[in-house]
């Protein structure tokens, strides 16, 4: 058998001002653009990603493997159309040569200049060149799924965790079911549904309610063999198109009835709890004052309005300014994205003093917000190449590159500055630069949930800090035009 295995992952925040060209699709290891051919295996085999599970399954059944392309970029603005065309054409070209199955590792919340749903478009194109090809897809928990996606896939699974620590397992679940189908053991049928529900990303993790019971119901049904695969998707709310929402996908065996019944039960439970997916926003100054009064450490301050893992610039300085204003001491700040500042700091050299305008270089016209740098002064404490390998539970084994990275010691506040963006989901982000996170009183990090993978176990307290940016928790800031309406909670009276 000949299997084609490929990856295309991007979570598009349609309000982000940051471009997403093809060259950004190789974020791991500082690679310029996607990985091709054998590079894919080199970059992803043995890591906690769906594509790694596909590679293992293919080896286990002795299949020939073709890996045309694997690309993922940090969340940001819409993907360049030529980037999507390159990825889609490379996958289709591999398929058309002839293969027995296609295994895809997709995000599901990508948007391009032209397409609201490029994943559905990709699957449709594959089906056009190979109408009966069995296709397994593992999607991110934040996928916003469409009818076109469902109609053109054979098997679909999703991550069941946020932070995403079961990415390999999601690939394994999808891949195994497709192998059983290839063997003629089963006859997969898909039932699905999507709710007009914008969940808040700080209220949608399956680790806690209200989502926990919903996900647990799906997990139990799959474990008990009532259906082949059952998945729930929290959706990615910071995007403006008709597919945004919570969705379910249930793969049944032959009989669609059981799959439809489970899909409906999952949707009904999520909808019933819709008010609990709303996040009440506390002003940042109140959160930081609350953190200042706490004992022990580390106290993790999670600034979630400018999280690059949801498309944020990672250069909004409001939270840093506020912790300085309130006089918090012994605090390390996760990387601020500012390539120009990195160059200035490197020119100054380790051990020397420098004053500069840090961050705030990016305007955010979609939400009417201008970038505002913060004037800081300090001593250059470290300069690194920004490279480390993830040892924590999320994307374990991945090689990460922050680009050139510097640490500026501004008295009680140590600020990291990097050339590339990265959501801090692994302690290596601090440790590679000589900062031991367990020894700090405070850690200020730009994240939402993914930090929990590594930082929750070491945190004495976690304090969520709201702030300006394109990941703001105030949905009133976003000029939504293309969402399906009515949608909850923008339209409180919305019905399913
Ligand atoms: Zn995600």
Please sum up the structure shown:
The protein has 13 helices and 20 strands. With 496 residues, it is an alpha/beta fold.
- Cα(first) to Cα(last) distance is 44 Å
Helix content: 25-40%
Here the CATH topology of the largest domain equals: Rossmann fold
Compounds present?
A: zinc ion
How are the strands of the largest sheet arranged?
13-14-17-18-12-19-11-20
Nearest-integer average pLDDT: 97
Major β-sheet annotation: 8 strands, mixed
Mind telling me the CATH superfamily name of the largest domain?
Answer: Response regulator
Show unreliable segments. Answer: none
CATH architecture of the largest domain: 3-Layer(aba) Sandwich
Count structural domains. 2
* Oligomeric state of shown chains: single chain
Under CATH at level 1, the class of the largest domain stands as Alpha Beta
Structural class: alpha/beta
Helical run tally: 13
Overall outline: globular
Radius of gyration: 22 Å
List keywords for this structure.
13 helices; binds zinc ion; Rossmann fold; alpha/beta; 27% helix
Overview of the molecule:
It is a single chain. The mean pLDDT is 97. This protein is α/β, with parallel strands linked by helices. Helix 3 runs parallel beside helix 4. The chain is built from 13 helices and 20 strands. It has an eight-stranded mixed beta sheet. Strands 1, 2, 3, 4, 5, 6 and 7 form a seven-stranded mixed beta sheet that branches. It folds into two domains: 276 residues, Rossmann fold, CATH 3.40.50.2300; 189 residues, no CATH class. Bound molecules: zinc ion (ZN). Zinc ion binds next to loops.
């Amino acid at each position: 058998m000949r299997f084609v295995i490929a990856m295309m992952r991007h979570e598009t925040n349609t309000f982000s001002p940051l471009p997403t060209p093809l060259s950004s699709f190789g974020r791991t290891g500082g690679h310029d653009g996607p990985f091709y051919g054998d590079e894919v295996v080199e970059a992803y085999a043995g890591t906690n990603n769906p594509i790694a599970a596909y590679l293992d399954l293919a080896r286990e059944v002795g299949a020939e493997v073709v890996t045309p392309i694997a690309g993922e970029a940090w969340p940001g603005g819409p993907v360049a159309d030529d980037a999507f065309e390159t990825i889609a054409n490379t996958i289709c070209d591999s398929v058309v040569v002839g293969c027995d199955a296609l295994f895809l590792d997709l995000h599901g919340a990508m948007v391009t200049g032209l397409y609201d749903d490029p994943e559905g478009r990709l699957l449709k194109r594959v089906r056009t060149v190979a109408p009966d090809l069995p296709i397994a897809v593992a999607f991110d928990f934040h996928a916003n799924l469409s009818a076109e996606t469902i109609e053109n896939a054979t098997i679909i699974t999703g991550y069941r965790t946020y932070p995403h620590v079961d990415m390999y397992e999601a690939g394994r679940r999808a891949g195994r079911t497709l192998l059983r189908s290839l063997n003629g053991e089963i006859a997969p049928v898909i039932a699905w549904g999507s709710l007009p529900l914008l969940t808040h990303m700080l209220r949608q993790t399956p680790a806690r309610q209200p989502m926990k019971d919903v996900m647990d119901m799906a997990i139990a049904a799959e474990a008990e063999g009532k259906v082949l695969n059952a998945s729930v998707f929290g959706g990615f709310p910071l995007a403006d198109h008709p597919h945004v929402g919570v969705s379910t996908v249930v793969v049944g065996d032959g009989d669609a009835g059981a799959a439809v019944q489970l899909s409906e039960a999952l949707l009904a439970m999520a909808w019933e709890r819709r008010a609990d997916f709303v996040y009440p926003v506390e002003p940042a100054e109140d959160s930081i004052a609350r953190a200042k009064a706490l004992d022990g450490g580390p106290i993790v301050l999670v600034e979630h309005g400018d999280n690059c893992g949801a498309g944020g610039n990672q250069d909004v300085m409001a939270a840093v300014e506020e912790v300085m204003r309130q006089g918090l001491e012994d605090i390390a700040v996760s990387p601020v994205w500012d390539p120009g500042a990195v160059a200035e700091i490197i020119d100054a050299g380790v051990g020397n003093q420098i004053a500069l305008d840090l961050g705030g270089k990016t305007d955010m016209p979609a939400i009417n917000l201008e970038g505002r740098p913060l004037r800081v002064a300090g001593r250059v404490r470290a300069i690194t190449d920004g490279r480390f390998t993830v040892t924590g539970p999320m994307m374990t084994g991945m090689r990460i590159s922050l680009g050139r990275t510097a640490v500026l010691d501004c008295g009680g506040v140590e600020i990291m500055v990097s050339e590339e963006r990265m959501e801090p989901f692994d302690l290596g982000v601090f440790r590679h630069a000589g900062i031991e996170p367990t020894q700090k009183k405070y850690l200020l990090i730009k994240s939402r949930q993914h930090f929990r993978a590594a930082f929750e176990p070491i945190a004495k307290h976690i304090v969520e800090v709201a702030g300006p940016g394109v990941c703001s928790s105030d949905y009133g800031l976003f000029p939504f035009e293309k969402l399906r309406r009515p949608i909850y909670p923008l339209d409180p009276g919305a019905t399913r």
